[in-house]
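Regression report. Comparing outputs from two consecutive submissions.

Submission 1:
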Amino acid sequence: MSGVDVSVGINHRERALARTLGTVALVAIAWFLATAVAVQVLREDLDWIRVPLSFYLIGPYGPWLQFAYVSLATAIAVMAIGYYRVTVAGPGRQAVLVLFMLGSMALAITAQAETDLGGGRALTTGAVVHAISAPLAFLFTALGMLWQSWRFRTDPHWRSCFAVAFCLALFCFAALWVLALWRELPRGLSQKLVVLAILAWLSLAAGWLRQQSLMNPD
């Protein structure tokens, strides 16, 4: 693709905005990760191997993690907008944006709805909402990751990112199904490993977006 001007239709202001959004996303992802780790260290009453992350939304330091969830939701949304602005038009461009936005909204809702702690108690409205929004947040975000990665393949400006992005997104999508179907796995540990894999993809994508002016077409 040598000699092709891939910047056509993407002006300097859009590129600058995309770099800013990539930076915002990276900071928000780092905040989420740091908060999630800190809360699990501070909550000695919960077994991090058996207890999923959503249990930490309730009780001491819960508001910290709620804010971190919203920060991660913001990271997903701003990154999606950034890529929408600096990738070539074509099939799936708007669909990727919609998937990430739905994932972002579902994650923000998950943060505010208290999960079911078990114990045979009647389900509250919040627990029902959480039970629906949490898997949707995973699903929409993972599908957005897959589709965005696949679109890299046909975009001369982002083709070099395709292999790493798609393989990692595919791994995350497969891991979600393992998490959903293999109920014997330690729920806390397995869920957090999947979250870490998704965070890895989001961090890479946000970093690429932040440095998108350095990307060169093949």
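Submission 2:
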Amino acid sequence: MPPTISIVITVYNRSRYLNAAIESVLQQTRHDFELIIWDDGSTDNSVDIARHYAKQDRRVRVVAAEHQGATRSLKDAFSMTTGTYVGWVDSDDILAPTALLETAAVLDANPEIGLVYTDYIVIDENNKVIASGKRCKIPYCKDRILVDFMTFHFRLIRRSVFEQAGGIDESCQLVQDYDICLRLSEVTQVQHLQQPLYYYRQHPQSITHQHTLELILSSKDAIARALQRRGLAERYEIKVEIVGHYYLQRKNINDCANG
């Protein structure tokens, strides 16, 4: 029997956090899932970590691929899944123990719903809680998602709807999650499960931290495509304000002496 749920983790040089991400999936209170770990040509020991868990748990499958980028890796990983419901966990994040149980229950009970998403908590490099996710406070709305990405984490998606929406678009570098959520909002009902079932990690090596401007501009492109699909491009165009924040910081005494 194929598993009900397929979870994907794509990883590229995330050995510091990968154990916690994998274990958070394997410790789920709902057990009928498979875990696909796709290593995108890591140069650290990420693939060794993944294979260690695959030896211990038959639900884990590992693919060690050549480096091709996060979005293509995610698309290829999803092509290997077999579950009725699909979702993914970032390799530096953590899934709460009841996340699959509670999100799958929504899809089990409501066939008209194609996407269910949860609240999330922000943590730091050492798993210390920083804050509740700001996006959790934004109510879901098919129109508002054009400017506010509230369907952030964790997401479980009905496979039939995921395929109807076209799956992962590999041309959407950096914002593949926002792009698929925009497309899903156009073909299915979406449910917000207001429980913090995902731990989103902030750290200096994260894509969000290192590629902020690219993320903003790529999101603008994804929104523009959504306006075209929705027949709204003749009436609306997306505008972006990139605001800089400036502050003074006292110099080190040695810096002053050298300057």
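Expected: both submissions complete independently.
Actual: both completed, but the second showed a warning that disappeared on reload.
Relevant detail on submission 2: The chain has a mean pLDDT of 91.
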